[in-house]
Amino acid sequence: MIPLLFIIILFLSNLHISWSTNTINNNNNNNNNNNNNNNNNKGANSQEEYEKWLMWNKQNHQHYWRKRVSLEQGRSTKVLDIRLQNAEINKTRLVIKQDGSGDYRSINDAIDSIPSHNTRRFILLISPGVYREKINIPKTKGFISFVGDFMKPPTITGNDTAASVTRGDVSAFNTFQSATVSVDSDYFVALNIIFENTAPHEVGKTGEQAVALRISGNKAAFYNCSFLGSQDTLYDHKGLHYFHNCFIQGSVDFIFGYARSFYQNCTLNSIAKKVASVTAQKRTQTTMTSGFAFMECSVTGSGQVYLGRAWGDYSRVVFSFTFLDKLVLPQAWSYWGKPLRNSTVYYGEYRCSGPGSNMTGRVPWARALTDQEAQPFIGTHFVEADSWLTSPSI
Asked: Which residues form the Pectinesterase catalytic domain (predicted)?
């Protein structure tokens, strides 16, 4: 097994990737990021927030990973799942370049080349550009990584909606199938990728749900990725998931699903014009371990937003050490028209900051967590990370 410290150092030394079939080298390319001109959903305020996130990212990226190296020193070695250990020993790298100078021109062609029930890590090195593809990674193809260039991340884009994929058949509207990228396999990793759905922004209209990414596989991690859309941007469907340093944009329930996920150092940016909700978590039974935990994140953007509304009777969402801007409504949480849920949901806040963090106007069933109550939600142990989460490598 490759030591975790070595992987982190390797990643730090390869912030820029030379997109060649035969070599992976440092590249001192200082071009500005210009991959979001095709995003029809972003207004001026949203574009400004996104550019601020990109600038912070570029300035702080190396500092963060150096800090991670120092934190990893002296720690005990993680005991990874045996399947994951074996998969990481013998990696295969595939280069995708639209000009034909790589192994494949399209992401789908590269995925098709991977054998079913593969047991090794396949790293798809995706060169800068806009990829207009609808992608599904089937459950039989685990251990796949998407890796983009840090300074010029590739954009995978589409514009399907719940209505368009069923040709307007109201009885069959399918949010599940609207995703630009769907991942049904386990151990998926994405690094420096923009997932986008450019469907027109019509708040709350039936059939206009438009997912940028659906993640249904278990033990998936996303580093330095962007999820751009409006209604139902990120379908965090099911499984254990980790999101680090990601930018997630939308207007209505733009993070939703049944999963058990930990979001760290992420920007949650609203493009709502009126009132909307950031999360819609669907925990339906007390025995379910699912929930969303946000730590060291920020909630920014336009409109007025609830931090969450109860899609399920036992919905569970916690924000800790998070900056809540003035767009957060004083009550912060909604039971979604079903008053009985106010006694069954678990909505908590812990040591948050910003103009939207004042708990005075909160609904009476919102929880201001104690140190002890917050402990399960303020670390990667929330997603049982010691057995599967590794620092991203190329």
From this structure: 94-385
